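Issue: copy button drops trailing tokens. Both records pasted manually instead:
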Amino acid sequence: MRARRHTVSRKPLFQSAAWRAFLRDMGLIAGTFVLGYGLSALWLSRGSVFSSDHSLPRVLELPEAQARTKLTNLGFRPRLDAQRTNDSFPQGTVIWQDPPPGTVLEPNSVVQLTVSSGPSLVAVPDVIGLNVPQAGKILAAAGVRVGSVDTLPGGEERGVVLATRPTAGVGRPRGAAINLVVSRGPESGR
């Protein structure tokens, strides 16, 4: 008699009951996580989900017109509060907003903007009658610098400032060049 060989039929791993149970359990865990995360996110931020309030964007360092457009498009009412000199930002740039960026506001809320009126001006100091090195030190202390130096015949002493361009008292931006007119001294014999 011949012995019969028993062949055990093996199912592929993905078709086994253990594998199906594992996949079912992983699906339940993933579903529970997603549902729990969604509910907790909704619970923690329900005001922002069901509210028409918006977070105020940052409009600092933007030109005034662009800042107004951005705020208006989000339903806010921009208002120009003031203009202030600012050495860091060019004229017409927003340098302050109130309330600050990130604040949650109701629609149609007013947002106050402060805009740069440009750099602060320095009054040109009166250096007439001083020699060029002294005049240069005084101009530097005031926040401006010596520009071109032109000479004219005349004056009792050589190297004395006869005039400034622009004249003393005129406002100039910090770092601007102030041109000097300096004497060559007395002209001898013609």
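Record 2 (pasted manually too):
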Amino acid sequence: MGANVKQAVPFFAVSDMETSVHYYVDGLGFAITKKWIVEGKLRWCWLQHGDAALMLQEFRKEGHDSWVPEGKVGVGVSICFTCEDALAIYREVTSRGIQASKPVVGNGMWVTSLSDPDGYKIEFQSYTELPEETEFASITI
């Protein structure tokens, strides 16, 4: 019998859908592949980047199912995307004005980290043979 569970997809509650969609689509290169629109407003979407996905939904600030967090909802949440070339992702997102940490090798992988508008920590990582703690600026690629 094959595996029943096929994929884990993070579901982020966001404070402003327009800001988050702009960040993920225009900044990080995700594409909206599914969406739910209510009264002309995007309420939920499924974003895809290669084989990876995540979902966004703006939390209601008024009404019966409203919720207003005390701080940024994503603080303390990290999502790691394993990719073919984290350095290419770093170059792409920083060229679009996204703040990302300078890549460094950790646990046998290049890792670059960033934080979305709601504080969710997003990491892109790719395998490498280089020594631990090698910094992107210290090599020529």
